[in-house]
């Protein structure tokens, strides 16, 4: 096979008169590249990705699509590194099922450095007086916390949330519920969106309720969040009452089209009710 290709290349690049073909300059580098060692890394990368994907599928039950997608960003050449991560997590109170749950949602955890990346974050939550079991629940609820910087993100976010509760004489309700908001961008999401609610006239206790029980509400950029708040105000929801808080939760939990469909349905029921009352009257 190789000899045939070489003969074809020679005939292509040399005419019968012995003059070099004009295609020589274009084809020669290509031919050389095909047979050079420079082409080998792509094969090794494919082999590595295949190993990573198979490992994720067989060991942790990821779908083929998700496994190969994650494999592009992982560098698993053997099970040695993942095994050390698993052993570390189990030693810190994580069950096999919890680890499986985290890996399925956040595959990158199995190539993390246990001592440099995982331990400092676990240690921080333990220092707050939270038990091993509860710490495991926090990370299972939001394994993406492991990816966040402890000094630049987790500690500042926690300090800000705690100050919100402390200033109103309240205790943090549940760190498990707050886990997702610790993955939220403090400077671009939580801080500005809390201020949007305050500017709109939402009382602090209602803001804290949202932070403590519905942190997902804040996980959007300020522009979109402000637009949602203004939309609810135009619909007649007063920011000072609980109905506004509930409406904000519902609005943030669904797409615009679904929201409009729901609002239209409610409006139709109200009109039908008024017509019914009018007929009876």
From TrEMBL:
GO biological process: DNA-templated transcription termination
The keyword Magnesium appears for this protein: no
GO molecular function terms attached to this record: nucleic acid binding
Pfam families recorded: mTERF (PF02536)
Keywords for the protein's UniProt record, in alphabetical order: Transcription, Transcription regulation, Transcription termination, Transit peptide
InterPro entries, sorted: MTERF (IPR003690), MTERF_sf (IPR038538)
Similarity section: Belongs to the mTERF family.
This protein's name: Uncharacterized protein
Organism the protein comes from: Sesamum angolense
Species classification: Eukaryota, Viridiplantae, Streptophyta, Embryophyta, Tracheophyta
């Amino acid at each position: 096979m190789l000899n045939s290709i070489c003969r074809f290349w020679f005939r292509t690049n040399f005419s019968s008169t012995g003059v070099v073909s004009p295609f020589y300059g274009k084809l020669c580098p290509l031919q050389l590249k095909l047979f050079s060692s420079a082409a080998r890394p792509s094969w090794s990368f494919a082999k590595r990705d295949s190993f990573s994907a198979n490992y994720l599928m067989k060991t942790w039950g990821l779908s083929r699509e998700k496994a190969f997608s994650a494999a592009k960003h992982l560098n698993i050449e053997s099970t040695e590194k993942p095994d050390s991560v698993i052993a570390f997590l189990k030693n810190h109170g994580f069950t096999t099922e919890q680890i499986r749950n985290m890996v399925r949602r956040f595959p990158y955890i199995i190539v993390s450095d246990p001592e440099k990346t995982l331990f400092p974050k676990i240690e921080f939550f333990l220092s707050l007086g939270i038990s091993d079991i509860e710490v495991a629940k926090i990370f299972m609820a939001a394994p993406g916390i492991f990816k966040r910087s402890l000094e630049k993100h987790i500690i500042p976010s926690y300090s800000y949330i705690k100050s919100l509760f402390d200033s109103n004489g309240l205790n943090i309700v549940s760190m498990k519920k707050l886990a997702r908001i610790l993955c939220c961008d403090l400077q671009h999401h939580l801080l500005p969106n809390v201020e949007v609610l305050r500017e709109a006239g939402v009382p602090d206790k209602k803001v804290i309720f949202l932070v403590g029980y519905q942190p997902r509400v804040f996980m959007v950029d300020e522009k979109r969040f402000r637009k949602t708040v203004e939309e609810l105000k135009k619909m007649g929801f007063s920011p000072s009452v609980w109905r506004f808080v509930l409406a904000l939760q519902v609005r943030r939990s669904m797409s615009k089209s679904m929201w409009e469909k729901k609002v239209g349905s409610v409006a139709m029921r109200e009109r039908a009710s008024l017509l019914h009352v009018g007929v009876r009257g």
